Amino acid sequence: EDDMPEMTVERVHRAPVIKGDFKLLPKKVKNFITHCVHLMAPRGIYISDGSKKEADEFIQKLTEKGTLTKLTAFKENYLCCTDPEDTARIESKTFIVTSNKYDAVPHVKEGVKGILGRWMSHEDAAREMSQRFPNCMTGRMMYVIPFSMGPLGSPFSKLGIQVTDSSYVLLSMRIMTRVSLKVFDVLRDGTFVKCIHSLGCPRPIQGRVKNHWPCNPEKVIIAHFPEQRMIQSFGSGYGGNSLLGKKCFALRIAGTIARDEGWLAEHMLIMSITTPQKEEYFIAAAFPSACGKTNLAMLNPTLPDYKIHCIGDDIAWMRFDKLGTLVAINPEHGFFGVAPGTNSKTNPIAMRCFEENSIFTNVGETSDGKYFWEGLQDETPRDVTIKTWLGKDWHRGKSTELAAHPNSRFTSPAKQCPIMHPKWDDPKGVPISAILFGGRRPKGVPLVFEARSWSHGVMIGACVKSECTAAAEFKGKSIMHDPMAMRPFLGYNFGHYLQHWLDLEEPGRQMPKIFHVNWFRLGEDGKLLWPGFGENIRVLDWIIRRCDNDDSIAVDSPVGLLPRPGSINMDGLPPIDESELLSLPKQYWLEDIKENRTFLEDQVGVDTPPIIFNLLEEQEKAFRANQQATAQK
Ligand code: GTP
Ligand code: SPV
Ligand code: MN
């Protein structure tokens, strides 16, 4: 606040306040808005109240302009297609700006390119910002969006104010976060995260706007200033780059706050499983982007008499309460979920979430007013015609292009999820019994295994890897490290992050059990060994029996505790090659351990907590001593 110019009426009046009551805002908010007006020179200021009426006005305007297309088969569902160059998060343009480099990123080995976050100095950031933000909103409206991550007024929650010149962002923020003028009342003279976003397309527009989607791909930058509790994002309207409450705030900035305050901000779903005996267990699970969080959080169980409830599908804020229980809240208010692959078989619950009041980004469209994407072929009538997300005709079985972008998404209010937990927005949170890590691992990695201890679980999390997905700019399907599923979302030095996790273990706390799962192992025929989706209840069932310390179902192995053969309920499944699914190919693992050690030495270096190396070494020794693992392929 100190570094921001004092508000004067003239300066704000140069940009008229066209909605909202500026003079009633808290002083710090006035100063922030004034600063933004000075910097970006919008033609006006619009203070969003988050109401349905307001959203309806924007939807009407955007529909007239052609940015949104109404999907007429539904009540209030809209399609939005972006500039084809603005479809995913851009990790290479995402920075953490701190005074000390090693607050933001680890000591990477000389000559190695760090992949666990990108640091920028304040000097460089000031220069980069000065080449982008001045007057970047000329001729555009600046929307001011007051929002809460977590239930408004809960001690768990954090407040933010986002300014943006994108009405798509305004509509999406209203679904994804709690947007309300009450934020100003709760805030008073308190602090909020300053979120500055611009598409980087002042008017008159230079060059051509593609698809009614202004953006500035050459100049994209997403800069985080954890010390200033500020985010500056330029050039992209895509979700993860532009809905700043989500990854930028709730993971990167909140991660830093969480470290300082002793809690966790994680890329995790939160769900509950109720057994036929009516016992309820809450779990959190971290999988990299597009690796199955939404699908697990909304699982439709195939085992009889199990009930699933969803608390959140992407982000968890967790802390130990006074009794030593780890409790979690979902700071979000909606889902921004992967569309392709979602259908009535794989995820019937998600299909019901987006029956209305939803925005579909970069999916195809049918002539009968519905959405279309890869995975919906069997439930789309053959006599309708289909247009791709790029507006081209799409012919079943003939077109080689995709109908939907592989990172196309739906944006839906959480409360529309038919299995939302009654406590999903309870400010007190829910008690976590188990934490799962996982990823897309076509080879070598068993369906499920359990960590021996909290620190062993942290080591397993540090070694999470997965096949690349379309959620960011990487091409191809190579296996990448994505420790704790947080590689793109780290707000501070990953070595310090691991230490923070380790330090959470204290006497008197009930540490959740930690597991690793893999739904994506392939057999020799190249086909998935595990059916996944609703059948994953069988793995959750094993996990909760382990949470009750049923030792009869676990066997020791070099990676931790594996299911005893026959202990996962396979009733009613077609034949499953269980021994292949649970096998630990010795050679694969010896190479994997070596590769993980090199990764940590190169990428985290001296910042790696030594116990992580010790645990890797123990794992290697166990493999070398283990005859059984040798016998397996
Ligand atoms: P982000 O929103 O990017 O963080 O992703 P997410 O982790 O929520 O991933 P999501 O659940 O949306 O799944 C991504 C893709 O993986 C979709 O195409 C799903 O259909 C597919 N998928 C999810 N679960 C399974 C599973 O159990 N088995 C298989 N084979 N595919 C799955
Ligand atoms: C992810 O990429 O992990 C997402 C989508 O959940 S985004 O919000 O764009 O990051
Ligand atoms: Mn995500």
TrEMBL record:
Keywords: Decarboxylase, GTP-binding, Lyase, Manganese, Metal-binding, Nucleotide-binding
InterPro entries named in the record: PEP_carboxykin_GTP_CS, PEP_carboxykinase_C, PEP_carboxykinase_GTP, PEP_carboxykinase_GTP_C, PEP_carboxykinase_GTP_N, PEP_carboxykinase_N
A cellular component term, taken from the record's GO annotations: cytosol
BP GO annotations: cellular response to glucose stimulus; gluconeogenesis; glycerol biosynthetic process from pyruvate; oxaloacetate metabolic process; propionate catabolic process; response to lipid; response to starvation
Phosphoenolpyruvate carboxykinase C-terminal P-loop domain boundaries: 263-621
Domain of life from the UniProt record: Eukaryota
Domain Phosphoenolpyruvate carboxykinase GTP-utilising N-terminal: 31-259
GO MF term list: GTP binding; manganese ion binding; phosphoenolpyruvate carboxykinase (GTP) activity
CC cofactor: Mn(2+)
EC primary class: lyase
Membership in a protein family: Belongs to the phosphoenolpyruvate carboxykinase [GTP] family.
Protein name: phosphoenolpyruvate carboxykinase (GTP)
